[in-house]
Structure to design on (158 residues):
């Protein structure tokens, strides 16, 4: 069983995504895998590396919690809605709420950010048309948590 996402820092996540690669420049020259899931993981890793590099260049490497407050900008709202939409569509409202609680417990976000995100969730409709062929909410996996960390990094960089 892999460690929980909270046990990783940004460097751990990069190594987990691709342990054979050392630098973003080395990745840019590599052939991308054909599997869309692999491409997504590489893109996420690349974005985390880019965001961390930007922060390092100004001497502000992140410490936990990575997100202490939601930025008061339109761009941040777009990122929040995109992130929550992704989580809710995959995992449903209850599992998304549980994930936000977990992110607060492992200090990816603060309790006040968790509450702000839960308030944003009220903007989503829980009423969906019934489709017997559509599977119910799925559990979030490691890739989903990595994606959440990317969204958290995006928000903290705004």
């Amino acid at each position: 069983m892999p460690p929980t996402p909270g046990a990783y820092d940004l460097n751990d996540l990069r190594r987990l995504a691709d342990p054979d690669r050392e630098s973003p420049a080395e990745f840019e020259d590599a052939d991308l895998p054909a599997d869309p899931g692999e491409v997504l993981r590489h893109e996420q890793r690349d974005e985390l590396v880019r965001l961390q590099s930007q922060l390092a260049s100004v001497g502000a490497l992140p410490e936990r919690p990575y997100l202490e407050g939601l930025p008061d900008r339109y761009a941040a709202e777009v990122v929040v809605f995109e992130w929550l939409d992704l989580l809710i569509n995959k995992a449903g409202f209850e599992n998304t709420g549980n994930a936000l609680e977990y992110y607060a417990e492992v200090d990816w976000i603060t309790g006040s950010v968790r509450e702000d995100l839960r308030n944003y969730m009220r903007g989503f409709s829980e009423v969906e048309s019934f489709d017997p062929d559509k599977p119910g909410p799925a559990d979030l996996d490691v890739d989903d948590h990595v994606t959440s960390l990317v969204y958290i990094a995006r928000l903290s960089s705004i």
User: Anything to note?
Assistant: Residues 68 and 110 are 5 Å apart (CA to CA). Confidence is low (pLDDT under 50) at residues 26-30. Helices lie at 10-17, 24-28, 36-57, 74-105, 111-121, 142-157. DSSP finds six helices and no strands in the chain.
